[in-house]
Structure formats: C-alpha cells, structure tokens
Design a protein that fits this description.
The protein is built from 4 helices and 7 strands. The chain is an alpha+beta fold. Strand 2 and strand 3 form a beta hairpin. The protein is globular, with a radius of gyration of 21 Å. The two termini are 33 Å apart.
C-alpha cells in the first residue's frame, strides 16, 4: 500500500471554493470526465450538514505494461476503458469545512484508489457562510481577508495476482522470455502502486488547475459564466456531434419540444 499526502490553498472564500467543487466537471483539465450524476443528497436535520453522493464516469487508459498482466478483453483497444468513481461529501456551511471521499468502483482487483480531502475556511468572518451564493448569479469576489485550505490524502492498494481471475499466464504462452514472468506477486503489486502514485500526482496537479479555472469563471461571470464554460469544455472534450448531443437532438425532435428537462444531476 502506498499513501500520498499533499496540501494546497485557494485564495478564495470557502463558499466560492465549495461551490466550485460541485461545478468543477468538466473543465479544460478534466475533459476525460464524461458525466457526473447526483445519486443521493440530503441535509442532516441534527447537524444541518449537506451530504451528497455523486457518480463520475471517466475515460481512462491502462498502461501498456499492465495490459500484459490482465485477462484478454478486459480493456479496450490500446488499453482504452471507462471507469466509475463514487464520491461522497459532507459540508458544514456554518463551521466552514467540507470533507470528501472518492474511490474507484472498477479495476479494484488491479488497484484501489481512495482519495480523501478536507477543505477548511481560513481567516474569514464566519458570518458570511450564512449566505447562499449558490442561489444567486452574483460574482463571489476573490477573498482578501481569508482563504480556503485543502488537505488531500490518497491511498493506493493493489491486489494484482491474488485470486483466480488475476492468475498470470503460464510461461509457455509467452512468445519469448519476458521479465514480467519472474516477478513475485508482491513485486507486481508494488509496481502497480508506483504507477498509480505517479498518475495520482499528475491528476492532483491538474485537479488544482481545474479548480482555479472554475473559481476564476465564478469570480468573473458568476454561475452563468461557469455553466457556459462547462458547455464549451464538454463540446471540446466530446465534440459538437458527440453521441450525447445526437441523442438529445433526436429526443427533442421526437417530443416536439426544445428538449429541456429537470433532473437532479450535475454535468
């Protein structure tokens, strides 16, 4: 098991950062995120804390070295695949903190990645957190008196090589000697975790950049500015003639309407 920890700060108020967190997909640094859906959301009547569970569908690519260790057909051509990420969050507006936990639901036999984050208000007047900025289109100004801290802890745990599903091929099936055939299960798991650790560092860096883009859009154009940016990023990632757009247009024509609907989900 590998554990990676990092901390960063956002020079914006906690209301702006927490709102940006829920509006961060898609952005120019996360165009691999295909969709985000809210599957549960409620306010705890005892604590007044907002609990949310979301499901993210992401595009991914399995490293070439790992493809040789996996059962054939498990990944698409060139290692292309899609994966589901479940994210749970708790936010306390009055106390000024938000906890999140995300983990992969697929490929857990290869690598399980659990990411925990804690966002906390720093150096600001706590009374501003009674304002519901999500219900307005005002521009949440960049914080001058305070900021929001973020602590991230990621654990990576590989189970590769354990169980019948991940039984490695007999040496006779390899066309020529391969150094992978001589690795122990522990060695394989450690290597997978190191590959995951490298990707985690890169992903967290892009995640911070993406959050800053969303925060800047929020500051300059309010919620409508963020939504317009999301639309452009979605088209840039999937293309103007992507399957989701064709399906939407087909449904709108079939129903004789503009295709609008109300649904409790984030995109």
């Amino acid at each position: 098991m590998k554990v990676y920890e990092t901390s960063s700060d956002y020079g914006y108020s906690f209301p702006a950062v927490s709102l940006a967190y829920f509006l961060r997909y898609p952005n120019p640094y996360s165009r691999h995120v295909l969709s985000t859906d809210v599957i549960d959301r409620y306010i705890d009547p005892l604590t007044n804390r907002l609990h949310t569970t979301r499901l993210h569908l992401k595009r991914s690519k399995v490293p070439t070295a790992l493809l040789k260790l996996l059962p054939s057909g498990l990944a698409g051509p060139g290692g292309a695949s899609q994966s589901l990420i479940v994210e749970k969050s708790i936010i306390d507006v009055r106390e000024g903190w938000m906890e999140t936990k995300s983990r992969n639901m697929e490929w857990t036999g290869v690598l399980t990645v659990v990411e925990r984050q804690l966002y906390k208000r720093q150096g600001e007047d706590p009374h501003i957190f009674t304002q519901n900025i999500a219900m307005t289109n005002e521009e949440p100004a960049k914080s001058e008196d305070g900021f929001t801290s973020c602590r991230t802890i990621v654990t990576l745990d590989s189970k590769l090589g354990q169980g019948a599903l991940w039984k490695r091929k007999p040496e006779a099936e390899y066309s020529k000697p391969n150094f992978l055939t001589n690795w122990s299960t522990t060695g394989l798991q450690r290597t997978v975790e190191l590959i995951g650790l490298k990707r985690t560092r890169e992903a967290l860096s892009k995640s911070r950049e993406g959050m800053n883009v969303v925060l800047e859009r929020l500051r300059n154009g309010g919620v409508s500015g963020v939504l317009e940016g999301m639309r452009k990023d979605r088209e840039a990632g999937l293309g103007p003639e992507a399957p989701w757009r064709r399906a939407w247009l087909h449904g709108a024509q079939a129903n004789g309407s503009d295709g609008s609907s109300t649904r409790d989900h984030d995109r």
